[in-house]
């Protein structure tokens, strides 16, 4: 069964060209290595300066106390059964959340990528909206749905709040889009002719899917799973609100030790534990994906989409729409409804209040935070695209441990506590040449740290799917590396780039953890403004928080629709 | 393929250009503050920087008044909750980010003072501030600015409907009549939660509060992680809690929550839907101090003086829902009409809090959460 062309793993495909071309090939390889090094330079510098250095500074501050290193604390903290319990819970809830998200979202990825039905683009944007919502706000909606007299209680007589199920369902809500966009991005471009060919050769529908489509999708499924895992691994607000005080994750503990108890040595050890766990997961991911990525035939997504045909596909479409309605739209609806539910009946009072500075929470009117957020997110997206795009280009060919280490380094920020990054920025970036404490750039830089890994993970499977022989052919014909990239890679990846940009933008728009610690004069972002409003008693504050959250949803959905339309219609066609 | 590539490139270029414009707006938007910083290193700066927590708020007109009186413009940096903001200030004490820090309260005061965060300064109008809130009266490293009481709040409607008198004291809360009615916050993650524990410790003593909490637990106290969740989701008396179908008519919140519940409600109700159990209160006092190593000491001193002025003190209640510390400050009518008068709040010295806090939090976790 070799409908798929064989991969371009290390050494593959060089045997038949040995001989005359040997010297030229070696020269080309040297040149490729140099290009790769150059591509890696900027991302490396970025991560060293804005991740490695700040995190090392805050961990170092914790472990180096009273003039000497406190490595004894490692044993103390790890020996604490309570800490081991937290570590265990953190890992298993992340694994369970990831599995549940994949289970519910993979059919969604197919439907939104392959089936053509009215409102598809809108739906794709809408499922991404949860991604930007502050967890406090969404958590509150889930409490209303899963708690007393909520949806599940009145319908089934089951209360799920403060149970693990509430946490898992909320994690699906937040991460549904990760799977739909990451996997769907590739799925839409897979040539259906390959699966059809397999069936023509006698394979059953399931066998053809299992042996042709599934292996082709695996790298992007693994990438999506990795991101969902890292996101839920560092879950904070959801655990606090829906789990109650009895459930705690490493992220919650690190926050507590850093921001409340001020026990920096313990926080430092916990941060190292978090790193170790994340590195283990990255190793597992690398091991799963390695050698499974292969060159694929990518085609125009418009060509692969078809109207749902047959009862099977119509049932699938119905099921996916039902899941989206229950898990995504219903909670969003609760929040929107609350934003209109004023003390004096349904109306626009909360939205009108957003325009006034009387609330006292800010010296600017709350709606002005929309502008702040858009500006920061736009800058963060560009940074993430440049850094992530260069990194992905450097990682296209997997050769050697060094490159794999580089790949892992890029993913680390996703699995790092926001409070570690926020506090790290504060103590590390305070002197020349990196005196950025008072600079507005600090916010988009922190946001780009979370956005860039998405760019890498979305673009890499597609870039690696580009048949290397196309690049070689172009190079042999005398094209410069830049021209090869522009003529071969760019057209194929522009769709992935648009998806990655959408992700980076949504991530930046919703980033709260690190942003909240980066104190800036009077330009709070939308999520920070929502948190400030929620922290005050009274119907007007709470209502404005709901109204502002609704604005955030609308801004997110609109931006994603614009980004999707920015894409060139026939990109990816060859 | 060629045209596709060109189109993709031009789309990318367009996006980049758009972002560059946005970025330029961003930098020009904050250039004012950058100018301030540039002159800040000189010493004769016209900008004074206030470092605070996320709850800090002041009317624009009041800050403008300060500029008019002194010539200084206030730049406010807010980062995280009170605990996070104090910890950040300690981490950056060798290279402070501003001139004045506001928002360290009596539960965190020892940590800030022990770390040498502040320079002594005796504020101009200190004579107007009662002695009992001047917790650093000997050295004047910090100046009291506001106080607020953490108290059990009750849902007036619930107790009327059930013909039940609302609880008033700590002792009331463990009575069977109030079984399964109270929601409070995790003392490890919430400052009102911690204040409520400290209040019980002040009332029952170092050796007695554990027993009290065991009784509270068997009387069905619910614990959530944050004030937001307790008050906005679980409490049945707040407007947010009503929407969220909260079913706990008692919540650990603030004495200022009742007036907050009527702001923006028309017509003005006769009573706030929320009442205060005045015998369950613990007093939090917030301080401001001149940061050690401040660039603009003169401006910082002027700002601390201003924060004790009647203008600022009378603006605070509706901005931050706290009480002024100044004895001649007039509270806004909504506070007078709907606020609760707390005469004898529980208190503990900052030294006792610093010495006992970690042990108490640990013991509380063992009793209530396990």
TrEMBL record, chain B:
InterPro entries: ThiB-like (IPR005948). Keywords: Signal. Pfam families: SBP_bac_6 (PF13343). Residues 1-23 form the signal peptide. The keyword Phosphoprotein does not apply. Transmembrane segments: none annotated. Gene3D superfamilies: Periplasmic binding protein-like II. It comes from the Bacteria. PANTHER family: ABC TRANSPORTER SUBSTRATE-BINDING PROTEIN (PTHR30006:SF2), THIAMINE-BINDING PERIPLASMIC PROTEIN-RELATED (PTHR30006). This is Thiamine ABC transporter substrate-binding protein. It comes from Actinacidiphila epipremni.
